[in-house]
Amino acid sequence: YDRILGAWLGRAAGCLLGQPVENWERERILGFLRASDNYPIARYMSSEVDDSIRKRYGVKDEPGAYGNKRVSWVNNITCAPEDDDMNYTVMGLGILETYGRDFTPMDVAEYLTMQVPVFMTCTAERVAYKNILNGILPPRSASYGNPYREWLGAQIRVDAYAYVNPGNPGAAAAMAVRDASVTHTKNGIYGAAFCAALIAESAVCKNAGEAIDRALAYVPVGSRLYEALAEFLELCGGAKEPEELIRWIHSRYNERDLHDWCHVIPNDMIICLALLYGGEDFARVIGLAVEAGFDTDCNGATAGSAFGMMYGTAAIPEKWTEPLNGKLMTRIGCLGRTEFASLAKRCLELAGK
User: I need a labelling partner for 45 at 20 to 30 A (CA). Which of 34, 101, 159, 323 fits?
Assistant: First the structure.
């Protein structure tokens, strides 16, 4: 229970750290962090900074995203705010409770269109949503008119499958693949399998390196994702500094190109980097995930989730959990504000089945 709760809290904290600067380029993120005396990242980012800093980096408080009235700087929240990264984890839990462990892609399609407000979806999920409403059902719903089908939308939906399968990466990955096939193809699906296996492995592995190596077994050899991660992990093994590796990622993928920015390959590299170089330091794990740029809230959330599953709640300092007030805002299944403790207990009940 403690590890599952740690995973929920780690995911929420990583998401909250990265959400206000989502879509910012790395240069802008680092400039703001340095100007606000928060580099390397040691705390949540706040909009309560000097007016000169606000003007220089375009810091705004409104409008918020995902139905939040204000941008989710730490000074603007009263709990973990609504976000697609957190909504999708609740969605996965809802799918399992509604249809059972043997749910099908059609079950996912039904839950998506009945329980998830359409404007809470983005990119590949919104295209697939439209396709399903128009009678284009899985697996074609993932490919028809969908240029986002290898982005990371599917891999941010898989955490619940890992939470109910701690130490069972095969089962977690299989669930992730069935879910991902509704909205994604090829590497979009492989990224989902990798992240599900990584978080499930984190419950039983001694360190992030071991969990990542084992999770890579669930990515097809010869795929672009496998080849890219294998090359990157070899570089990590060469004891290079994280900044050098971040520059290496940016030299191959362009965050100014929307396709690269949200593709699974550079973002999965960043998740691995954060976990490997952050080690047992939660702030460093989610800090690296956000400092590296690209899809900041998604990467912070996934890295934080794996960390929490590996080390439990005691390894996450109170300064990261206190602003969450033990609660998450989500409209999935009409929950509204719900407690992380309740979500973790629901996962634990399913894990025993």
Answer: 159
